[in-house]
Write a structure and sequence with these properties.
Helix content is 46%, strand content 10%. The chain is mainly α and 109 residues long.
Length: 109
């Protein structure tokens, strides 16, 4: 498989695009449906901590689930950007642009 991108495009965003993935791997449609259900469930269980609404916190409040990404896509992301988790800014910028994978968040109440 080869990837052709034009100047200014972002390969991570292109391979993360739901329409691109579902057209090539139809079973990913079920994944995106599942993420929507997970997001709704986590939102129903939201917590307010220090005046901020937090969605995705574990019961003990020590960790937050922020994203749900298919393992195959994650492998491709790491192949393109191996240090994505070493720089939180890079990961969260990608997640902000690709909200279809975001399941948890924090915002002022």
């Amino acid at each position: 498989m080869s990837f052709h991108i034009c100047k200014g495009s972002n390969l991570l965003d292109e391979i993360s695009e739901p329409d691109f993935l579902v057209s090539r791997v139809p079973s990913f449609a079920q994944f995106f449906d599942g993420v929507e259900v997970l997001r709704d469930s986590l939102h129903e269980a939201k917590q307010v901590v220090a005046g901020r609404e937090r969605v995705g916190l574990t019961n003990d409040g020590n960790m937050m689930r922020v994203a749900c990404i298919p393992q195959a896509l994650w492998a491709a992301i790491l192949a393109v950007e191996p240090k994505i988790l070493q720089d939180k800014k890079t990961f969260y910028k990608w997640l902000h642009r690709n909200k279809q994978y975001q399941v948890g968040w924090t915002k002022p109440q």
